[in-house]
Design goal:
Blueprint (H helix, E strand, L loop, with lengths): L2 E8 L7 E2 L4 E2 L4 E5 L6 H8 L7 E6 L2 E2 L5 H11 E4 L11 H12 L6 H7 L15 H13 L5 E5 L7 H17 L3 E6 L11 E3 L5
The structure holds adenosine-5'-triphosphate (ATP).
Length: about 210
């Protein structure tokens, strides 16, 4: 099993604790996590991604208990095994497109030999020396995807990747994520409230049980 969670719960300091559903994912599988706004989708994705320690429960990635790792060891594990596409792009504005990928390579201690192919596949190779502030929203999002894939992760996590896109671009971005995951033998988890994504990823999990 690539991802295995067990009895996860979380509480923000001010809020009530909430339980999160079990996630089990094999190598190369794709999973869609659905749920209304505020149901805990981003929280669950951040816990699986090693960014937010749960209050109780565990996450195993390829048999490694994620939160048994601390500090630099957790950062390195995350950098090497997990690629995250955030809801709000976290690309670094003062850097160029290529430098954003090299930064990911640096933190994951990887050589970046895939960077050129990735930028070509995502049709932003010609923008590699431009600062990300000069890019369109769609281009910046493709940089986020390229950066998430730059260290050949086994697991790709995408948070609301289609939220601000029209139908044609939403379909394109989902297809791109699926293609890249398949090409690089990675598993993919997409979190969304966007019903349009349902038709593309057949294995689905509901957070919050409100629907
Ligand atoms: N930093 C925080 N401090 C306090 N409460 C928070 C914080 N972040 C999220 N919450 C609360 O925790 C709950 C789950 O939030 P989360 O962001 O995981 O939901 P979501 O399903 O991803 O929502 P959306 O689709 O709107 O992004 C919500 O009730 C939210 O208000």
């Amino acid at each position: 099993m690539l991802v295995e969670t067990n009895q996860l719960s979380f509480s923000y300091v001010e809020g009530k604790p909430f339980q999160l559903p079990e996630v089990q994912l094999r190598e190369r599988e794709q999973l869609l996590i659905l749920g209304q706004s505020g149901s805990g989708k981003t929280t669950l994705l951040h816990i699986i991604g090693g960014l937010l320690a749960p209050k109780a429960g565990s996450v195993h990635i390829s048999g490694q208990s994620l939160y048994a790792l601390k500090g630099a060891a957790l950062d390195k594990f995350r950098g090497q095994h997990i690629g995250i596409i955030f809801q709000k792009p976290h690309i670094l504005a003062p850097l160029t497109v290529m430098e954003n990928l090299q930064m990911a390579n640096f933190f994951g201690k990887r050589d970046g030999k895939r960077n050129e192919t990735l930028l070509k596949d995502l049709d932003i190779w010609h923008k590699r020396d431009q600062k990300v502030t000069t890019l369109s929203e769609g281009e910046a999002q493709r940089v986020s995807i390229a950066r998430a894939l730059a260290n050949s992760p086994q697991l790709i996590l995408a948070d609301e990747p289609t939220a601000s896109l029209d139908d044609a671009n939403a379909a394109r971005v989902i297809a791109l994520l699926q293609e890249q995951a398949e090409k690089h033998h990675a598993a993919l988890i997409v979190v969304t409230h966007d019903q349009r994504v349902k038709q593309h990823i057949s294995t689905q999990l509901e957070v919050g049980g409100t629907r």
